[in-house]
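haha ok so turns out i had the wrong file open the whole time. this is the CORRECT one, sorry everyone. sequence first:
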Amino acid sequence: MKKIWLLALALLCATAHAQSTSDEIAKYREMLADANPADLWEARGEALWKEKRGPKAASLERCDLGLGPGVVKGAYVRLPRYFADVNKVQDVEQRLITCMTTQQGFSLAQATKQPFGAGEKKRSDMEALVAYIAGESRGMKIQPGVTHAKEIESYEVGKKIFFFHGGPYDFSCATCHSASNKRIRLQDLPNLTETAEAQKIYAAWPAYRVSQGEVRTMQHRLYDCFRQQRFPEPVYGSDAITALTMYLAKQAAGGDFNAPGMKR
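then structure:
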C-alpha cells in the first residue's frame, strides 16, 4: 500500500511540474509577444514584394494570391485555394513560386533555391515573403477554399495523410495530434482534430522560432513533422504538403488569425 501511495504522489508531483512548466513557457511567450523578431522578416518581405527582380525585372505586385492581382490583405487566411490558371490547389508558397517563375522569370530551381533560412549568409526570401503576406491577414478569420471540387479533393487527401501510419515507427500525424493532454518532454501536443486546438495552433503559423533564430513557414513545420516521423523528405512545394495544410486550415476554419507568431 505504501508503494502505491508513493507512486501516486510521484505522479501528482510530475503533473504539477508539467503544468508549472507549461505556465512558465506561456508567460515567456507573452513577455516576448510585443517584440517579435518576425517583424523584421515582415518588413523584408514587403520590400521583396515590391522590388523588381528576376530576368523580367518585375515585382510581385501583380501576383494574384486569390483576391485579385496585387491584393495581399486578407489573402493568407483564404489559402490554400484553387487557382484556375494552374488548375490546382496551391498554398501560399506554391503560389509565390508560380508568380516568381511566370511574372519575374525565375527558373523553378532559382525560385526554390533557399526555401528555409540558415543565418545571415543563407537568408530565405520565401520565408520573408510569407511572413509579410501572413501579417497582412492578422486579426481576420481563417477561411480556406473548400467549395471547388479540387479543394474538396485536396482536403480529403490531406485528411488521409494526417491519419496515415507508416515509416519505421509506424507513426502518423495523428499519433501525436489526435488526443488531448499529451506532451513530449516540455512540448505540449495539440489535438488537431479538435476545432479549438486547431484554431489556436494554425493561427500562429508562420512563426519565429527562438531556438532556430528564423521565421518558419507551414511548409517547414510540416516538413519537420515528416522528419520526426522518419518519413521520406517531402519535396519543397509538394502537393502532399499543400493537401495536409488544407486539412489543417479547414480544421481551424473560423478561428482568428494571429501570425506571424512566436514558438520555442
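Confidence is low (pLDDT under 50) at residues 1-18.
again sry for the mixup
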